[in-house]
Every structure is written in C-alpha cells, then in structure tokens.
Amino acid sequence: MSATPLRLLAAGLLCAACLRPAFADDEKTDKKPNPAAKASPRRDKWWQDRHGKFLKQTEKGDIGVVFLGDSITQGWEGSGKEVWKKTFAPLKAGNYGIGGDQTQHVLWRITEGKELDGITPRAAVIMIGTNNMGGHSAEQIAGGVETIVKQLRKDKPKMKILVLGIFPRAGKRIDKSATGAKSGELLEKVNKTNELIKKIADDKVVFYKDIGGKFLDKEGGLPKAIMPDYLHLSAKGYQIWADAIKADVEKMTKE
C-alpha cells in the first residue's frame, strides 16, 4: 500500500472518531440509539391538551423568550405566578413546561410537535432532565439535552439559549427520593449529569448556568421553605430562580 492510501485511511479513522457521541458511556453507546434523545410524544390526554395549548400560544405570536421544561418550568404558572408576572412577563416570555416531561418528550414537542414553529424568540431557557433520572444514565440524559439544543440551533440560529443545570432534589436530610434512589446517590447523579451538560455551552450562543447551590442550606440540604417536596419550588424558590437568571435573560434578549 502506498503512502497516499495510508494517509487517507488514517484520515478516515480520525473522522470516524470525531463522529463518536460526546456523551458515550461505553463502546456500545454509538451503536445503540439513545432513548433520551429520540423524539417521543406522550399519549395521555392531559399532556396532549397542554401541547395543544402551546400551539395556540405560539399561533398568537409575540413571544420574546421561551421557557422549555417539565413540571418545574410549568410551576411558573402556579407557585411562581407572581414572580413570573413581574420578572419575565415584561420580556414577553412564554411558558412551555409540562409536568412529567423527559428530554425525549421536549424534543418531540419542538420537532414533530411544532410548538415553536412560526415564532422568533430572542432567547430560550431550558431546564430538563430530572424526570429521566430513574431510567437513563447521566450520559444519556446529557445527550438528550444536547440534542434539544442542537435542534433549537438548527431551527432558530439567531436565538440565544441558556441551559440550566438540573436542580438538586432529595436533599441530605431525607433518605429516599421520588425515584426510590438514596438521596446521596441521586444528588451524585444530578451533579454528574450537570458536569456533562455544561460541555454543551459555547459561551457565544449557548450558555450554561448551574444555580442549584442557591437552593441549598449550609448543610447541603433542601429547605422545605424552598422545595416543599424536595423537588418542586415554592414561591420563595421561584424568586431565587428568577433573581439568578434575570440579568442573563435580559442580556440575551438585547444582543
């Protein structure tokens, strides 16, 4: 074999290595589809109805900031309603959070679900992945978040994106979480996932911020005054969230 074919072979092998998933957790990962990164709808009527509500919200237009996520994001309509009204409503923010959603559900909503089609928000805030903790690895969850971000970049290249680290849950003061995992194990997995998620940011269009520490007390626990069920936020918790990202969101909408 001549030197030229050898160089071509080496280049081909190098390119193949470049295509390996960023969050591969074993040699088989690039051969098996990541279930957390495969767009999937939910079939329950409640979910379908809320998806329909989002389509109508988008049809009305005039949305400057999109908040994408699960029940924690949806909670801006509940415990966080007053904070939202004074902090994000002036920025023409739209809430696109659905309780129970995982990364693959959000991915479906922005692809086949067409929830954001026809609008040109200047910024998006994403916080998703906590509901994947029970059934997916940290690498799979981070891969799901990465796929969502890539899709948003493809669909809305001028939109700035703030990816938030998954919030802490099941503080050290309790033994069990909603997933049945020991609290320490769950916190460790959340932290591991966030370490992977932050690699998605390029600090130009996609930004990462972990505000989880702001919800914890000095002992590393989750005060019930902030997270009554060690997962969802109280009004106080939403105020902490708003204060932590307000400047970031405002900056993204002006650039």
Describe this structure in words.
With 255 residues, the protein is α/β, with parallel strands linked by helices. The protein has a single domain, classed as Rossmann fold (3-Layer(aba) Sandwich). It has 8 helices and 5 strands; from the N terminus they run H-H-E-H-H-E-H-E-H-E-H-E-H. It has helices at residues 3-18, 45-60, 71-74, 81-87, 103-110, 138-155, 183-197, 235-254; strands spanning 65-69, 93-97, 123-127, 160-164, 206-209. It has a 5-stranded parallel beta sheet with strand order 2-1-3-4-5, sandwiched between helices. The longest helix is centred in the C-terminal third of the chain and has 20 residues, at 235-254. The chain is globular.
Give the spatial strand order of the biggest sheet: 2-1-3-4-5
CATH level 1 name? Alpha Beta
Percent helix range: 40-55%
CATH fold group: Rossmann fold
CATH level 4 superfamily: SGNH hydrolase
Q: Please indicate the percent range of residues in DSSP E strands (runs of 2 or more).
A: 5-15%
Q: Please name the CATH architecture.
A: 3-Layer(aba) Sandwich
The end-to-end distance, rounded to whole angstroms, is 54 Å
Name the poorly predicted regions. 1-29, 171-181
What is the number of helical segments per DSSP (H or I, 4+ residues)?
Answer: 8
Domain tally: 1
Mean pLDDT: 87
Task: Report the biggest beta sheet as strand number plus sense, adding barrel if it closes.
Answer: 5 strands, parallel
Globular, elongated, flat, extended or rod-shaped: what is the shape? Answer: globular
Helix-strand category: alpha/beta
**Rg from C-alpha positions?**
19 Å
- Total strands: 5
